[in-house]
C-alpha cells in the first residue's frame, strides 16, 4: 500500500510538468553563445560566426561572420559577445563598436559605428536603444537611451543607480535592468518589485506593469552556491576572484525579475524561483494583463544557469549539449 501511495504521489508531482524534446542536432556548433528564434528560423552565435537554421527541416541555411575590423566582420570584447536581432526581413548584429545589417540569409547590407559597448537593439529600422553608464555627483547610474539611424544618442528613458559604485561594493543580485524591443515598443525592467515600463518608438511611456509578487529570500545555501560558482568559473582570473570575495554584497531578498522575453504578443517574466530544472515564468499579454504563472523546463548547464534559450511560436527553444555524443542539440518545449 505504501509503495502504491508513493507511486501515486510521484505521478501527481510529474503529471503537470512538460519536458523538452530533442528536435534536431547541430553538428556544426562547437560552443554556442546565444540563441534567437523567429517564426521559421533559429540563429545560433558561436564566437564571431552566425549560424542560420531552418525550423522546418533544421538544415543549415547560412553561416557568416568572422573576427575583424572590416565590413562583415565583428569585434568582441573579452566579456562581450555577438548578438543577433531578427527584425522583419533583416538581421541586426550587435558587436563591439558597431551595428551591422544583413539579410536573413546572411548577405551583408551595411553597418554603423556605435558609441561604446555592444548592448544595442533595434527598435525599428531607423531607431535603436542601448544601455549606458553615467556618473552624477559621484554616483554611478545605468541608463537606457534612444539612438537614431546614425547611432547619435537622443532621449534617455530610464535611469537607476548602478549596483557597482566607486566605493567598490558588488551587489550580485541588484534589481535587474533588462530591456527588450518588440513591435516598435521598448520593455524595460529595473524598478523595485515586479515592474515593467513600456515605451513607444519615440520614447514616450505608454504604461507600466506593476504586479504583486512575493520575492524569494536568500538563504546561506544560496549565497554559498553563488560564491562557489564564481570561484570555480574559469572565465574569471584569480585577481577578479579576490576582488569578488572582498566586495561581494548579498541582499536579503532576490529581485522579483531575473529576465524577460517578449514574443508572440506575450511577455514572459523569468523569476528567481526554480525547482530543479523547472523555472517560474509569469506570463502577461503585451498590454500588461496578467495571464498565468507557469513552470517551464530548462536544462541547466551548471548549478546556477540554464543553457541558452528563447521563446517563440508558443514554444521554448534551447540549445543543449549532449555529453554522450559531444554534439549540440536543439530542444523544444510546448508552452
Helix-strand layout with pairing:
Elements: H1 2-15, E1 21-26, E2 34-37, E3 41-46, E4 49-54, E5 60-64, E6 66-67, E7 73-74, E8 83-87, E9 90-95, E10 98-103, E11 108-113, E12 120-124, E13 127-136, E14 139-148, E15 153-161, E16 170-171, E17 179-182, E18 185-188, E19 194-199, E20 205-211, H2 220-232, H3 238-247, E21 248-249, E22 259-263, E23 266-275, E24 278-285, E25 290-297, E26 309-312, E27 315-322, E28 327-334
Parallel strand pairs: 6-7, 16-21
Antiparallel strand pairs: 1-28, 2-3, 3-4, 4-5, 8-9, 9-10, 10-11, 12-13, 13-14, 14-15, 17-18, 18-19, 19-20, 22-23, 23-24, 24-25, 26-27, 27-28
Please give a structural write-up.
There is one protein chain. A hairpin with a 4-residue loop joins strand 10 and strand 11. The chain is globular and about 50 Å long. The N terminus is likely disordered. It has a domain of 29 residues. It starts with a helix and ends with a strand. It has 335 residues and is mostly beta strands. The strands form eight sheets. It has a four-stranded antiparallel sheet with strand order 1-28-27-26, with no helix packed on it. It has a four-stranded antiparallel sheet with strand order 2-3-4-5, with no helix packed on it.
Amino acid at each position: 500500500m505504501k509503495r502504491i501511495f508513493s507511486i501515486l504521489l510521484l505521478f501527481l508531482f510529474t503529471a503537470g510538468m512538460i519536458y523538452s524534446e530533442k528536435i534536431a542536432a547541430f553538428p556544426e556548433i562547437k560552443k554556442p553563445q546565444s540563441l534567437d528564434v523567429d517564426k521559421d528560423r533559429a540563429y545560433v552565435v558561436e564566437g564571431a560566426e552566425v549560424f542560420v537554421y531552418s525550423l522546418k527541416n533544421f538544415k543549415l541555411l547560412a553561416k557568416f561572420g568572422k573576427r575583424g575590423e572590416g565590413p562583415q566582420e565583428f569585434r568582441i570584447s573579452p566579456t562581450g559577445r555577438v548578438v543577433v536581432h531578427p527584425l522583419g526581413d533583416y538581421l541586426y548584429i550587435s558587436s563591439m563598436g558597431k551595428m551591422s545589417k544583413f539579410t536573413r540569409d546572411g548577405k551583408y547590407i551595411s553597418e554603423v559605428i556605435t558609441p561604446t559597448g555592444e548592448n544595442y537593439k533595434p527598435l525599428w529600422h531607423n531607431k535603436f536603444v542601448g544601455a549606458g553608464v553615467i556618473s552624477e555627483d559621484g554616483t554611478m547610474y545605468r541608463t537606457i537611451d534612444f539612438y537614431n539611424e546614425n547611432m547619435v544618442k537622443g532621449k534617455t528613458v530610464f535611469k537607476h543607480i548602478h549596483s557597482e559604485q566607486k566605493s567598490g561594493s558588488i551587489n550580485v543580485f541588484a534589481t535587474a535592468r533588462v530591456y527588450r524591443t518588440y513591435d516598435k515598443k521598448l520593455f524595460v525592467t529595473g524598478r523595485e518589485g515586479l515592474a515593467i515600463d513600456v515605451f513607444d518608438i519615440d520614447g514616450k511611456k505608454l504604461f507600466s506593469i506593476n504586479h504583486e509578487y512575493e520575492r524569494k529570500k536568500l538563504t546561506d545555501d544560496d549565497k554559498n552556491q553563488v560564491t562557489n560558482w564564481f570561484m570555480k568559473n574559469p572565465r574569471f582570473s584569480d585577481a577578479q576572484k579576490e576582488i569578488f570575495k572582498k566586495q561581494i554584497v548579498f541582499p536579503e531578498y532576490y529581485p522579483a525579475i531575473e529576465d524577460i522575453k517578449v514574443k508572440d504578443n506575450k511577455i514572459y517574466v523569468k523569476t528567481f524561483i526554480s525547482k530543479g530544472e523547472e523555472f517560474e515564468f509569469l506570463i502577461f499579454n503585451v498590454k500588461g494583463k496578467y495571464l498565468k504563472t507557469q513552470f517551464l523546463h530548462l536544462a541547466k548547464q551548471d548549478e546556477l544557469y540554464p543553457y541558452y534559450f528563447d521563446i517563440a511560436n508558443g514554444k521554448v527553444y534551447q540549445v543543449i549539449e549532449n555529453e554522450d555524443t559531444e554534439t549540440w542539440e536543439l530542444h523544444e518545449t510546448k508552452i
